[in-house]
Design brief:
Radius of gyration: 26 Å
CATH topology of the largest domain: Methylamine Dehydrogenase, Chain H
Shape: globular
Number of strands: 41
Number of domains: 3
Largest sheet: 5 strands, antiparallel
Strand content: over 45%
């Protein structure tokens, strides 16, 4: 028997399910100069920003649409607007000069409030702050929720403060957090300027009392309000007493069903560390299991240490990471900074992704879960981190050759509720002669792979084009204010451009789990062709592929089809089939069916 023919035929059959998924396919969601959803014919997007994606895959963004005159005069009739919907099903949420239910008819939408960000819930509801025109000279800031395709005005400046005394009005809307269980709102009340908190659900809008009798809110920290799918919320606040001393000056608080509890207060003792107390808090976020992640400083009045902690629903406090920890593989000396303690993100199973800086001057990204117990009893002790390294400055980035390194710029990191993560960053040549912005995706086991980079080929409306630019953003700064770019399905939304001088087209990288299964099953079932296993994914001319130098073979996927390459398969790339068919066969072969 001709073994080459036999194995070639077997490979063909087993790879019949090999090509159906586009693999890390990149789709254009909205692009400059393209038709604006919900507008009349010949209206196009001329500006796009504030892109978001919900855990369920709903998308929202803000921008400007205008009538395309197709002449040297360019565009006219510019209109501010907000859009939402599933990919390919975008709809208009609101546009300039629209009125809205809950506000008087003469109060008209002007523009999205750019000091805030859109908030998307699991179900696709959208919350946003906006500027509203009341008259030619008078404007107000308003809070709006878009639920089940309809807009509702929640509150606006100048209105009577809900549930408070006569004469108290909304002076400013400071912050809000939004989930399918409700909305938490922080606002300043005129004329006193005090902060107040409200909780809104289907039963209405109710003020939240102070957690300490005899004390009132002095200031609620902006961008430090978080709510989960059960309606539990957390926030940081300063308290004061008008006629005395408040026992809590600054603390971390948790609320549910109108009841507020103090989780931790400034100067509270650190559990398991005699003589050491908490001296400050930051960035509290709550997951759907009720666990609260927060940054905190510890002090013994002579020295201090920064860290990130998690408190479970039984109020047990466990550490995630501290300044001064040594990396487990000792590839650098020690962690000395935690990127200002705001950049981490975490999932429902408490798996976290954390940016750090090392004493060697290198930046890194770590992932892992909190410790069960404290690793030390003194602030001067040095401990080894339980977190693993997924990216490190000056090391080779996944998907790039040995002459490339991470330049230390990591941003837009996020982790979803399944423990998948992504981050954007910049790869540069060892010689420093070139830089390439790129996006990497990772799994809970810490395996990281390249999914997008500047210069890669993408297919838009059936036409192959080049992704000329990828725009990276900053670290998230808390659930209420962070940008959500990763869905629980593994889809990633990002800003880029097909044109070198433009930078605000919105793209979606779809889930690539089928592609990865194909690669992994091919390695498992046909090691004589594809070994050693678990080589890096790479990108070239629209292909996502793996190269096996030992066997001189390739597996690649492009536009939903699978290809193999190598002398054993014949001359040139050999098309196998669609991803769905290939995967179906490989899974059947792996299970003996």
């Amino acid at each position: 028997m001709n073994l080459k023919y036999f194995f070639g035929t077997l490979l063909f059959l087993s790879l019949i399910s090999f090509a159906m998924q586009l693999g890390a396919a990149i789709h254009l969601i909205a692009g400059l100069g393209r038709p604006a959803a919900g507008f009349p014919e010949r209206y196009v997007y001329i500006s796009l920003y504030n892109h978001e994606i919900s855990p369920s895959g709903h998308i929202a963004f803000t921008g400007v649409a205008a009538f395309d005159q197709e002449s040297s005069s360019g565009v006219s009739d510019e209109t501010n607007a907000i859009w939402t919907g599933l990919p390919g099903q975008l709809r208009l949420v609101i546009k300039q000069n629209d009125s809205i239910a809950g506000f008087p008819a003469h109060v008209l939408f002007g523009d999205f409030y750019h000091q805030s960000w859109l908030k998307l819930t699991h179900s696709g509801s959208v919350g946003f702050l906006a500027s509203f025109k009341i008259s030619d000279t008078e404007y107000a800031k308003g809070l709006v929720e878009h639920v089940d395709g309809k807009n509702y005005g929640v509150m606006k400046t100048g209105d009577p403060a809900p549930g408070l005394s006569d004469g108290e009005t909304i002076g400013d809307i400071v912050d809000f957090a939004f989930s399918d269980a409700g909305m938490v709102i922080v606002a300043k009340v005129a004329p006193t300027g005090d902060h107040k908190i409200w909780f809104k659900n289907n039963l209405g809008l109710q003020p939240i009392p102070s957690p300490v009798a005899g004390c009132i809110y002095d200031r609620v920290e902006m961008n430090h309000v978080s709510i989960n799918q059960s309606g539990e919320f957390v926030f940081l606040a300063e308290l004061y007493a008008e006629d005395g001393i408040c026992p809590i000056r600054f603390g971390l608080f948790k609320g549910r069903d109108g009841v507020i509890k103090t989780l931790l207060a400034e100067n509270d003792p650190v559990p398991g560390m005699p003589g050491i107390h908490f001296s400050g808090f930051g960035n509290p976020t709550i997951n759907d299991h009720g666990s609260v992640f927060f940054s905190a400083s510890m002090s013994d009045n002579s020295q201090s240490k920064d860290g990130v902690w998690v408190m479970d629903d039984l109020h047990r406090v466990n550490p995630l990471v501290f300044g001064g920890e040594i990396l487990a593989d000792k590839r650098s000396d020690a962690i000395v900074g935690l990127s200002d303690m705001t950049g981490y993100d975490f999932s429902n199973n408490n798996l976290a992704i954390v940016p750090i800086a090392s004493t060697s001057g290198g930046s890194a990204l770590l992932t892992g879960k909190p410790r069960e117990t404290l690793p030390f009893t003194s602030l001067g002790d040095t401990e080894i981190s339980q977190l693993g390294v997924i990216a490190f400055e000056n090391e080779q980035p996944p998907g790039f050759g040995s002459d490339w390194i991470f330049n230390g710029v990591f941003s837009t990191l996020e982790i979803n509720q399944n423990g998948q993560y992504f981050f954007s960053g910049i790869a540069e040549t060892v010689s420093g002669g070139g830089e390439v912005p790129a996006i990497w995706r990772g799994e809970p086991d810490g395996r990281t792979r390249l999914v997008a980079q500047e210069g890669m080929k993408v297919t838009v409306n059936g036409e192959e084009q080049t992704l000329e630019r990828i725009i990276t953003g900053g670290f998230p700064t808390g659930l209420s204010s962070k940008r959500n770019w990763l869905s629980d399905n593994g889809d990633i939304i990002f800003l880029g451009s097909l044109h070198r001088r433009r930078s605000d087209d919105i793209f979606l990288i779809t889930d690539d789990s089928k592609e990865q299964k194909i690669f992994n099953l091919a390695e498992q079932l046909f090691p004589q062709y594809f070994s050693p296993p678990n080589v890096d994914d790479q990108l070239l001319e629209g292909f996502v592929y793996r190269h096996y130098p030992d066997t001189k073979t390739y597996i690649g996927i492009k536009n939903g089809e699978v290809f193999v390459l190598g002398d054993v398969f014949g001359p040139g790339p050999q098309r196998i089939d669609t991803i769905e068919n290939t995967l179906r066969f490989l899974e059947g072969k792996a299970t003996g069916l």
